[in-house]
Amino acid sequence: MRTVVPDDYPPVMAGSRGEKCLAQLGELKIYPIDCKGGDELLRLTEDADAIVNIRARCRFDREFFEKSPALRVLSIWGTGTDHVNLLGAKEAGVVVSNTPGVAAHSVAEHTLALMLAAARQIPTNDTAVRQDQWPRGQMTQLTGKTLGLIGLGAIGRQTARIARGIGMNLVAWTFHPDDAFAKELGIEWVELDALYRRADVISIHVRQTPETEGMVGKEAFAQMKPGTILVNTARGPIVDEEALVHALTEGPLAAAGLDVFGKEPLPSDHPIAHLSNAVLSPHNAGVTPEVTDAGLLLAAQNVEAFFEGTPQNIVV
Questions:
Q1: Domain of residue 165, residue span
Q2: Is residue 314 situated within a structural domain?
């Protein structure tokens, strides 16, 4: 069996437990390059039985699957699949798997960090203090406020637990409601319109799909109350960025905490980069040594499980 990692840049797979697992399965080739797809991807993965995908910058389109007859499994490090033509994979008979839940604690912690940084105006206050200023403006206390969760998968659930721990009230909307979990944490299920109207803080935790792209846009912002804080650690295109900029400059948003953007890296001339009420991080909510090691190992184990006849964590 031949396994290829075509996009290990910056390198994380080499020297990991995931590499050791893959090496035991047969021939393994790791390319420490920034492969983005196309002809280069086809050349690097020629005759590969399995591919482990590291970076979402590497695009797997329909043509790639049509021209990769030997490929049987694509194992993604992470949960996002917006860079993979899933229908093309399915039609080509390629199983696609990912690593759900591995980064849930880390991303939930980062979600809380962005939430607090936005509510407490930490970046702007930090800058002011360093410039010999001593601001006394009012900040937002999260205890007693209502958190609206859009999506309640592994990350959304962990975010809910943390938010409940600091005394927030919880309302949620999700594609797959779990009444037992909602009862456990005291979460109230609501429709999206009601969530937009009631929440003091809104946190996004759905996958990027054609159904969710742009779902938080002009109409959604129009329903939010003045002073709302938006946090997005899911995917940038879920939020209409033009509408987001307007909501941050003209209302109703008081602030936003963003780890993801429509275009990454975020261009320095993008309007969001110049808004003092936007707290930004470089899509690194799940980047910790613990998450990296566990995720790479699970991505390798997904390949192992497939060839043992017991596929796991299947997307398609």
A1: 104-280
A2: no
Q: Which CATH number belongs to the domain containing residue 151 in this structure?
A: 3.40.50.720
> Active site includes 191?
no
The total number of structural domains in the chain stands at: 2
Distances (CA, A) of 197 to 88, 148, 189, 221: 39, 10, 14, 9
Q: Using 50, 70 and 90 to split pLDDT, how confident is the model at 172?
A: very high
Q: Is 57 a catalytic residue?
A: no
Angle 47-309-32 (CA atoms, 0-180°, nearest 5)? 40
Same domain assignment for residues 222 and 301: no
DSSP one-letter code for 81:
-
Does residue 115 lie within any of the structural domains? yes
Q: Give me the catalytic one of 184, 264, 290, 308.
A: 264
pTM of the model: 0.91
pLDDT of residue 108: 98
Active site residue: 105, 110, 205, 283, which one? 283
Q: Is 164 a catalytic residue?
A: no
Q: How confident is the model at residue 42 (pLDDT cuts 50, 70, 90)?
A: very high
Report, as an integer, the average pLDDT of 224-250: 98
Q: Is residue 313 domain-resident?
A: no
